[in-house]
Amino acid sequence: MLAAEISAPLRPPLVSVVIPCHDYARFLPQCLESLLAQDLDPAKLEVVFVDDESSDGSLDVARALLGAMPFGSWQSLGLGRVGRPGPVRNAGLALARGKHLLCLDPDDQLLPGFLPCCLEALARTGADVAYTGYFEDSGTERREVTPPDYSPLLLANQNILHTASLMRRAVYERGARYRSATAYEDWDFWVQAAAQGATFVRVQGPQLVYRLHAGGYFQDAQKQDGESKARIVVDNPAFFPPWTRAWARGLLRGEAWAEPFGRGLIPVLREQTGLARQGTEHPPGPPCGNQLPCGGAQGTVGESC
Question: With contact defined as beta carbons under 8 Å apart, do 42 and 74 qualify?
Fold first, then answer.
């Protein structure tokens, strides 16, 4: 493991951007240029680049690019092969010194308003996490994805936040981490954050470009859909209603009644879990006494951020 830091001032940067990478050197120039193109002084940014034993020289490419760019500071870290993005992000977050933290995959690009809009939303609402819409780019077509306003029920049902969502440092300090027990590492991370008291605000409009690859990690994760969703529930039991917890335990045990449900969806209503057909009794509900996840929705920030 090798780390290097260049020109790191004593004052914490406004934002630390953690970039995990494996064999994506070809995307690094566009990704880093998108950070420089923000309507924000790059001297306020720290870039933490973490390489997962790339074979295409990604670490050297990153160091050469970062050394020539006017960021306030940057760090690089080379790991032995991990094979999953979550632990690589954790390694970068452990080094990051910023007041705000952002995990950005090297094949993705921020649009110029992303950081200013998200920072303004966090400052104005007091929320802990700001998330945006995005363009999903397959290389042959591009479609706009507009996430809904946050509610704990929605997050329990499906992952409504992109990995590249800006969070206050407090989210990390409360203990949220990427865990490898599930292939849906980012969904699990946001559920952890919510269960630990984080609040969320949606910034309207697409603010980044998310690149899809055939045969990429996301496609591989979908093959483990049922088990990965069940692990999120089992590892964050207080966030889910009792029947969802029973469904998750049943699925992991291989019980016939506990079907995987729709891809990328966790059943949050009792009739969706298969328990109603079985007449299975369920344990008492969450500590808040609610039949659905506790907590309320946060506000939405308008287009003119």
Answer: no
With a cut of 50, say whether residue 296 has pLDDT above it. Answer: no
Closest CA to 88 of 216, 178, 181: 178
Distance of alpha carbon 64 from the chain centroid? 27
Helix axes 225-235, 185-195, angle to 10 degrees: 20
Contact 132, 242 (CB under 8 A): no
Provide the pLDDT for residue 139.
Answer: 81
CA–CA gap between residue 218 and residue 6 (Å, rounded)? 33
Enumerate the domain spans of the chain.
2-219, 226-278
How much is the mean pLDDT over the chain? 89
The whole-angstrom separation of Cα 72 and Cα 145 is 32
Ramachandran region, residue 44 (left: φ > 0; alpha: ψ -120 to 50; beta: rest): alpha
Contact 193, 129 (CB under 8 A): yes
Q: Would you state the pLDDT for residue 26?
A: 97
Band of pLDDT at residue 212, cut at 50, 70 and 90: confident
| Local confidence band at 297 (pLDDT 50, 70, 90 cut-offs) | very low
Q: What is the pLDDT of residues 4-36, one digit of tens each?
A: 555 556 689 999 999 999 999 999 999 999 999
Asked if the 2-219 domain carries CATH number 3.30.200.20, the reply is: no
